[in-house]
Amino acid sequence: MEPQDIFAERTSVEKVEEGNQLAPKFDVEGLIPVVTTDYKTGELLMHAYMNQDALAKTIETGEAVYWSRSRQCLWHKGATSGLVQKVHEIRVDDDQDCIWLRVDVMGGASCHVGYRSCFYRSIPFSKEAEGQSPITLNFEDMEKVFDPKQVYGDAPNPTRL
After folding, report:
1. For the whole model, what pTM was predicted?
2. DSSP strands (E only) in 16-64
3. Which of 38, 132, 133, 157 is the most buried (most CB within 10 A)?
4. 86 forms bridges with which residues in the sheet?
5. Helices (H) then strands (E): counts for the chain
């Protein structure tokens, strides 16, 4: 499935916002942001990006495929770890510049660090953050679903600094 075959041209605001054709707006780097949540619970699992090929592959296979900005290649989520994201629903926002995936995660985790969600820390604000320099993050999820070293080995992770 080629992107040019499944994506419509963005011809007018009315057609994009009120029409029934998929006409995603990719940014200047050819990317569109993706928010991924658990299909059953709605829990936010991760945020990533797709290019045209990643979105087309996701539509074709029913499994999440992203664009890795650090590795500059397609990233079939779970191809290495087995933590595949099975897509139940794909939504696009009103002006078609953001994708929302609702998924089931095989293996129970989406974060390469081992937590269920990539959003395992919170940022204190207001009075709680007063006097902190730098700000100290709060761990909201203390238990890892898997050990990253067992899954990925000791190889350096290209998504890290």
Report:
1. 0.86
2. 32-38, 44-50
3. 38
4. 63, 104
5. 4, 8
